């Protein structure tokens, strides 16, 4: 299932075993250097902030997420990746601040970043290698070959059997 990170923000999170409310999703955490979803940061006014790995998520449903605490790999105290950082190509082209991340929950694969250009969204597929600095996420210029105002470029490259996005998106060299 494909999600925008913003779709999950503020969604209530519950313990799958006890039904206890654990808080709300405050941030999606991923590793931009390998394009993998790590998990979610969850907190609330009465709950200490916790980071849950993607493997601990039992279900994502409309309005809520259920978690199996204590199971699955530990997610280090990772800072949220990317949101607000400047997206830049390896050729130095500034694309704008990252406003969202789009990921495939089943494969744990980060599929694209969203930036706002001239008041409109631009979805830029993740093409590795990616480098992250304090203020920037640097992507290969070839990622712009399949940039689109929506998910259409990604959906067009879905594997018909598994539903996952096939990478690399293009065998063709990027336009000059």
Describe this structure in words.
The chain has 176 residues and is mostly beta strands. It has 2 domains: 66 residues, SH3 type barrels, CATH 2.30.30; 70 residues, SH3 type barrels (Roll), CATH 2.30.30. 5% of the residues lie in helices and 43% in strands. It contains 2 helices and 13 strands. The strands form 2 sheets. Strands 1, 8, 9, 10, 11, 12 and 13 form a 7-stranded mixed sheet that branches. The protein has a 6-stranded mixed sheet with strand order 5-4-3-2-7-6, with no helix packed on it. A hairpin with a 3-residue loop joins strand 12 and strand 13. The longest helix is centred in the N-terminal third of the chain and has 4 residues. The protein is globular, with a radius of gyration of 17 Å. It starts with a strand and ends in a 21-residue tail after the last helix.
């Amino acid at each position: 299932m494909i999600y925008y990170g913003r779709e999950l923000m503020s969604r209530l999170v519950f313990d799958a075993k006890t039904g206890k409310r654990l808080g709300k999703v405050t941030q999606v955490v991923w590793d931009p250097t390998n394009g993998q979803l790590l998990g979610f940061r969850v907190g609330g006014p009465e709950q200490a902030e916790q980071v849950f790995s993607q493997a601990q998520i039992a279900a994502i449903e409309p309005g809520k997420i259920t978690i199996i605490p204590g199971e699955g790999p530990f997610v280090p105290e990772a800072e949220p990746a990317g949101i607000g950082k400047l997206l830049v190509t390896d050729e130095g082209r500034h694309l704008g601040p990252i406003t969202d991340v789009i990921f495939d929950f089943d494969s744990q694969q980060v599929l694209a970043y969203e930036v706002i250009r001239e008041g409109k969204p631009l979805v830029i597929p993740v093409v590795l290698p990616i480098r992250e600095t304090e203020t920037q996420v640097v992507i290969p210029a070839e990622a712009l070959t399949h940039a689109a105002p929506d998910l259409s470029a990604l959906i067009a490259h879905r594997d018909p059997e598994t539903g996952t996005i096939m990478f690399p998106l293009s065998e063709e060299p990027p336009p000059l």
